[in-house]
Amino acid sequence: MQSKALFLDRDGVINEDLGYVHRAEQCVFVDGIFELVRSANAAGYIVAVVTNQAGIARGLYTDAQFHDFMRWMQGQFALNGASLDHVYYCPHHPQAGKGVLRQTCICRKPEPGMLKHACVELNLDMKASILVGDKESDIEAARRAGVGRTFLIGENDAVSLGTVQQAL
Ligand SMILES: [Mg+2]
Ligand SMILES: [Zn+2]
Fold this sequence. Notes:
By secondary structure, the chain is of the alpha/beta class. It has one domain: Rossmann fold (3-Layer(aba) Sandwich). 35% of the residues lie in helices and 15% in strands. It binds magnesium ion and zinc ion. Residues 9, 11-13, 17, 134-135 line the site of magnesium ion (MG).
């Protein structure tokens, strides 16, 4: 049987987007994120992060540092009774990337590659899935991958994580 997923952009959705966040001390969790993920877990959604990480392409931090930070983040969710089940990321940038990371890839949002990969890997019903983003490029990626519902959150927007939680 197919599962449904709650896809979360990371910067600006899980943690405040302070720019190239990659260490625990730079991480400020967005209000309501633990509650949202707990509710999604309880409602049977697989929770998956889908994040562009051009900081890796730019050489600002390494792949290993990214993974260390994400393990720490998943640990913080666990401490709050929530499970961030999967992490998908794009380490590329079409202009600023160094070496092989400089490429026009199929994963950097608004390309739908990360979502399509998750769909196959996790056997997802995309129509029953949800994506939360803070940029139009997040929403476009979701649309192109056939995600059923999308939420664009942001400070100038009436939509909050609480809105998403109520819609689960
Ligand atoms: Mg973002
Ligand atoms: Zn990529």
